[in-house]
Amino acid sequence: MLIPSTISCGYCSYCRSGYTAQCDNANPNGPLAGTAFFGGPKDTGPFQGLQAQYARTPLAAASLVRLPDDIDDDRAILMSDIFPTGWFGAQLARVGLGDTVAVFGAGPVGQFAIASARLMGAGRIFAIDRLESRLAMARAQGAEPIDFDREDPVEALRTLTGGIGVDRVIDAVGVDAERADKGPAADGQQHEMFDTEVKEVAPEQAQSARDGQWKPGSGPTQAIQWAVKSVAKAGTIGVIGVYPPSLARFPLGEAMNRNLRIHMGNCNHRAILPELVRLVRNGSVDPIAILTQREPIMSAIDAYKAFDKRQPGWMKVKLEP
Ligand SMILES: [Zn+2]
Fold first, then answer.
1. Which CATH superfamily is domain 89-264 in?
2. Ligand 1 centroid vs 321 CA: distance in angstroms?
3. DSSP string computed for 175-224
4. Considering the chain, what is the average pLDDT of its residues?
5. Residue 113 Cα, ligand 1 centroid: separation in angstroms?
6. How far is the CA of 17 from the centre of ligand 1 (A)?
7. How confident is the model at residue 204 (pLDDT cuts 50, 70, 90)?
8. pLDDT of res. 189
9. Which one in 65, 67, 272, 305 has a CA-CA gap of 20 to 30 Å to 5?
10. Residue 210 pLDDT class (50, 70, 90 cuts)
11. Nearest one of 138, 93, 145, 140 to 120, comparing CA atoms
12. Using one digit for the tens of pLDDT, what is the confidence trace for 101-112?
């Protein structure tokens, strides 16, 4: 069985419309308490994470997805959250036949957003990141890499699309975004704004980040700002990168004046998964290349550290019991 990372009942009006991440019944804190995740933040319900040998799954009859025997555990792990989230990003961005698509963030979810955009018929796909190993994997998938330390991604995307901008943008970064601090994209005038945002977003983490462990990105709205600037007039942006409720900044005026459409949210895993099971099974896509590390579960803490530090090649880790 596959356990989607969000929980849903299957019978409320939201679930029946495919918004399984907005289920009215899964979160014990009530219908307005938000998406119910395994291992999510406290507001999302009392559910423990699933990196364990055993787990109890609420609303199992509706939430779980039966997997055919020919999809193995390694592939199934990638399908419980990150593949459907990447797919959801491409869906939110309304990727269609021939579209030019920019994917901000070439981490594991970004890689699946690239794969999904390709499956939906995108004409050209651009991947924006600063880590060489991530850009190399994007290139291996047929995307055109843009390193934001070497070129201004907004300028590059406009140049590569004849001055138009891309039809669709997927923000697979969210609040972890790093500001451009070298190269032509660095904008000194924005430093103060980003500093303020970092404090708003995660005051505690910003202070306790001295050991080099997880900390908020240095430019929480850097990715969404680039997204709004690089999309074509009347283009569409899909936001799957996570933003906390404390972040209240968005370039509204710029988006409004260019007739942009912006869709965002937590992935409706349960609604999307049957289609992905079909695509993996019939060989349209094989998610396995994204799984780069296999570590024993007893080394989980070290594995998290390596991943948080964005060590080269650490795309996605499987913890083995
Ligand atoms: Zn429901």
1. NAD(P)-binding Rossmann-like Domain (3.40.50.720)
2. 32
3. GGPPPP-SSTT--GGGHHHHHHHHHHH-HHHHHSGGGS-----S-TTHHH
4. 91
5. 26
6. 9
7. low
8. 82
9. 305
10. very low
11. 93
12. 999 999 999 999
CA–centroid distance, residue 62 to ligand 1 (Å): 9
Q: How far is the CA of 31 from the centre of ligand 1 (A)?
A: 9
Give residue 33 CA to ligand 1 midpoint distance, Å: 13
152-156, 179-183, 315-319, range with greatest mean pLDDT: 152-156
How much helix, strand and coil, in percent to the nearest 5, is found in the chain?
A: 40, 15, 45
Q: How far does the centroid of ligand 1 lie from the alpha carbon of residue 167, in Å?
A: 33
* pLDDT tens per residue across span 59-80: 999 999 999 999 999 999 999 9
Domain ranges of the chain: 13-81+269-290, 89-264
- Cα(59) to ligand 1 centroid in Å equals 10
Q: How far apart are the first and last CA of the chain?
A: 17
Q: How far is CA 14 from the centre of its chain?
A: 22
Measured in angstroms, how far is the CA atom of residue 242 from the centroid of ligand 1?
22
